[in-house]
């Protein structure tokens, strides 16, 4: 007599399993994520409030590490460098990527090949980029010596060994690497633009430049925003490029906060100070990402 | 004055020939409709007139002047695009004013003109919105406004109503017709909707695979289609095509029409009234084109038209008329009768054939022969 009922119960167990299966599958990675990412963020936060040196200690002292950090010339140079590097890197990558995309959008021949050539740098690791540019820019090996050998004796291009200019060398290499990626991003967006819009604008009497700058690019605002957020967080994370290209030098004139953090935490036994600098970087990233996520989520809810 | 004259224009994209030796004349103030199936090159032809696509061969004249190398903006042409192509980042007002802005017209004047156009199209309340906040019909009006505001001498419309629902389409059709009457501008209008073509056009050009099949008034196209493609394309339900033999009986040239009566095949002899030019074709196969309304019930007791009796397989009432599915030369054909005369399906009934209006086509070339 209980046969149908039993079956019903079995069914409901299966049903329930089916309903909770996604949660069950998602749970372990989720827990790992919470532990290793957010757990360690919290841990770093606590360490930054202690005076840990070689080994972490847990007696919270207050914000003295931050006070020390902000008074250090090395940190201030690194943070100023981040501002210079970040703004120039984002500005030039987007401008160059955008212009390349517009040019490639003119349905020229060999477009596929050109696109691959421009995109390729993104596939190279920062270490390789850094090393290659280090050789190219080295005064006694690269462009400078080459031009001098060609007979232009007074030619000088020694930014990489110049205190004031070294950070711009990092910008140069990073822009070289990222522009192709930005171009691909813009090109794919340009390709979704209705060709009739361009035709209509031609009939209305707009020049090609006017069409791109007055109509098409403004309608690609979301792409600009994505490019900005991607490049901004890449620039804050930048570490390996500096290591390979200038190793922070000359002196510490071209260090970035990530290099500073590594130097303090793992080389100079200043874990507390390193943690404080890491928290500063986290705050910088958050200042960019949080408004972006907020606007995205809000747009989705309203859209 | 605004005439368009295209002489032997051709265009290809890579190896596909999209337009083949097109010649076309549009008179001043004329409403010409380009009608054809999807992909036959209608939009391409419009783009060529507007100067948005270069042509490989041929000459385009506007008002008699060759404009092959004249930039689109200097041709004084406005176009409403198939997708409307509104500028997504601009408000409706700027969308409409953009053409004037590019022509360096003062801000005050721009504003006044836009207001005026907006009030004709009844879109004044939308002026501050972005295109993404408009419905399809509203977008269509804005696209019209953008074309109207420049007061060009030539308008090109690329299927402007194809994205609208049936009711709105009917309304906009009337408005476009009114607009043509008040503006008296030359208009070229692309569509694949034959009702639109018939109701709007002064003349229709039927296109197929990049070639113009026939140009004529709607009435000419309907009653004297140049070939079987045109005959089949225009008219709903389409013309019935029947393979028949052309024979002479008692000194009268006519065709043998095979039908079915009470399940058995019967042949009817239908004399052709105007058959002078057909004598050479005696005893050959030709194709008889019968529009459904040419096969109808016999409303009069006396008629000059021949009668046929045949089985009715199915009835399709459409309200005003009823369509009867019959079988001619082993192919289904449709007859159009008044619902009052409709029999029940499966019965047989007598139809008269309006022989004065039938079309005859060559079996090989499919061209009209009489
Ligand atoms: N830029 C292009 N490159 C290659 N082929 C094209 C291009 N534009 C159009 N074609 C081809 O040309 C032919 C005609 O296109 P066109 O857009 O003129 O058709 P249409 O008659 O307007 O069709 P529809 O009614 O669907 O709008 C099509 O076969 C199309 O595939
Ligand atoms: Mg088209």
TrEMBL record, chain A:
Coiled coil: none annotated. Keywords: Cell membrane, Membrane, Transmembrane, Transmembrane helix, Transport. InterPro entries: ABC_transporter_permease, MetI-like, MetI-like_sf. The keyword Transit peptide does not apply. It comes from Pseudovibrio ascidiaceicola. Belongs to the binding-protein-dependent transport system permease family. Residues 79-294 form the ABC transmembrane type-1 domain. It is found in: Cell membrane. The chain crosses the membrane at residues 21-46, 82-104, 116-136, 165-190, 211-236, 271-294. It comes from the Bacteria. It is a multi-pass membrane protein. This is Glucose/mannose transport system permease protein. Pfam families: BPD_transp_1. The keyword Transmembrane applies. SUPFAM superfamilies: MetI-like (SSF161098).
TrEMBL record, chain B:
The keyword Zinc does not apply. Residues 4-234 form the ABC transporter domain. Coiled coil: none annotated. It comes from the Bacteria. Keywords: ATP-binding, Nucleotide-binding, Sugar transport, Transport. Gene3D superfamilies: 2.40.50.100, Nucleic acid-binding proteins, P-loop containing nucleotide triphosphate hydrolases. CDD domains: ABC_MalK_N (cd03301). GO terms for molecular function: ATP binding. The keyword Oxidoreductase does not apply. Belongs to the ABC transporter superfamily. This is Multiple sugar transport system ATP-binding protein. It comes from Pseudovibrio ascidiaceicola.
């Amino acid at each position: 007599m209980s046969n149908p009922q039993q079956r019903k119960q079995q069914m409901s167990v299966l049903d329930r399993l089916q309903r909770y299966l996604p949660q069950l599958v998602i749970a372990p990675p989720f827990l790992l994520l919470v532990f290793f990412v957010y757990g360690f963020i919290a841990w770093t936060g606590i360490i930054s409030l202690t005076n840990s040196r070689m080994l972490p200690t847990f007696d919270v002292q207050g914000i003295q590490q931050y006070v020390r950090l902000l008074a250090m010339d090395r940190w201030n140079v690194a943070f100023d460098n981040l501002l210079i590097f970040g703004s120039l890197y984002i500005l030039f990558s987007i401008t160059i990527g955008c212009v390349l995309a517009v040019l490639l959008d003119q349905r020229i021949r060999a477009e596929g090949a050109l696109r691959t050539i421009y995109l390729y740098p993104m596939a190279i690791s920062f270490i390789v980029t850094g090393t290659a540019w280090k050789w190219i820019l080295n005064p006694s090996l690269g462009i400078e010596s080459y031009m001098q050998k060609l007979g232009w004796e007074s030619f000088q291009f020694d930014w990489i060994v110049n205190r004031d200019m070294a950070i711009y060398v990092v910008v140069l290499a990073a822009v070289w690497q990222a522009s192709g990626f930005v171009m691909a991003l813009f090109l794919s967006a340009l390709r979704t633009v209705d060709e009739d819009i361009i035709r209509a604008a031609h009939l209305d009497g707009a020049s090609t430049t006017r069409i791109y700058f007055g109509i098409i690019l403004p309608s690609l605002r979301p792409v600009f925003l994505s490019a900005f957020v991607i490049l901004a967080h890449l620039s804050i994370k930048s570490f390996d490029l500096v290591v390979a290209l200038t190793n922070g030098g000359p002196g510490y004139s071209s260090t970035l906060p990530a290099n500073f953090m590594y130097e303090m935490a793992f080389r100079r036994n200043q874990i507390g100070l390193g943690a404080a600098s890491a928290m500063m970087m986290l705050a910088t990233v958050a200042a960019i990402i949080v408004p972006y996520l907020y606007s995205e989520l809000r747009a989705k809810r309203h859209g | 004055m605004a005439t368009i004259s295209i002489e032997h224009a051709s265009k290809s994209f890579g190896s596909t020939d999209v337009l083949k030796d097109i010649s076309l004349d549009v008179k001043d103030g004329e409403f010409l409709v380009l009608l054809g199936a999807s992909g036959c090159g209608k939009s391409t032809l419009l783009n060529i007139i507007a100067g948005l696509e270069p042509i490989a061969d041929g000459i385009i004249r506007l008002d008699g002047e060759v404009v092959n190398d004249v930039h689109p903006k200097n041709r004084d042409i406005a176009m409403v695009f198939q997708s409307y192509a509104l500028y997504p980042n601009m408000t409706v007002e700027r969308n409409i004013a953009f053409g004037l802005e590019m022509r360096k017209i003062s801000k005050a004047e721009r504003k006044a003109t836009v207001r005026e156009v907006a009030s004709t199209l009844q879109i004044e309340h939308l002026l501050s919105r972005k295109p993404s906040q408009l419905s399809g019909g509203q977008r269509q009006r804005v696209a019209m406004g953008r074309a109207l505001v420049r007061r060009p001498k030539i308008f090109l419309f690329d299927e402007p109503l194809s994205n609208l629902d049936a009711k709105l389409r009917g309304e906009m059709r009337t408005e476009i017709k009114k607009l043509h009457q008040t503006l008296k501008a030359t208009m070229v209008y692309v569509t694949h909707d034959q009702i639109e073509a018939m109701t709007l056009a002064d003349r229709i050009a039927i296109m197929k695979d990049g070639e113009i099949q026939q140009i004529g008034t709607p009435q000419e196209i309907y009653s004297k289609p140049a070939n079987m493609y045109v005959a089949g394309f225009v008219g709903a339900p389409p013309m019935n095509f029947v393979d028949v033999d052309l024979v002479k009986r008692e000194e009268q040239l006519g065709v043998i029409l095979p039908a079915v009566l009470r399940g058995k095949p019967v042949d009817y002899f239908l004399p052709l009234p105007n058959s002078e030019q057909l004598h050479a074709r005696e005893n050959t196969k030709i194709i008889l084109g019968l529009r459904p309304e040419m096969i109808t019930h016999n409303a009069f007791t006396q008629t000059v038209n021949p009668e046929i009796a045949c089985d009715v397989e199915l009835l399709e009432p459409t309200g005003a008329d009823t369509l009867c599915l019959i079988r001619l030369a082993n192919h289904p054909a449709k007859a159009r009768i008044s619902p009052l005369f409709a029999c029940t399906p499966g019965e047989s009934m007598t139809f008269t054939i309006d022989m004065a209006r039938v079309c005859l086509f060559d079996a090989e070339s499919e061209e009209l022969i009489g």
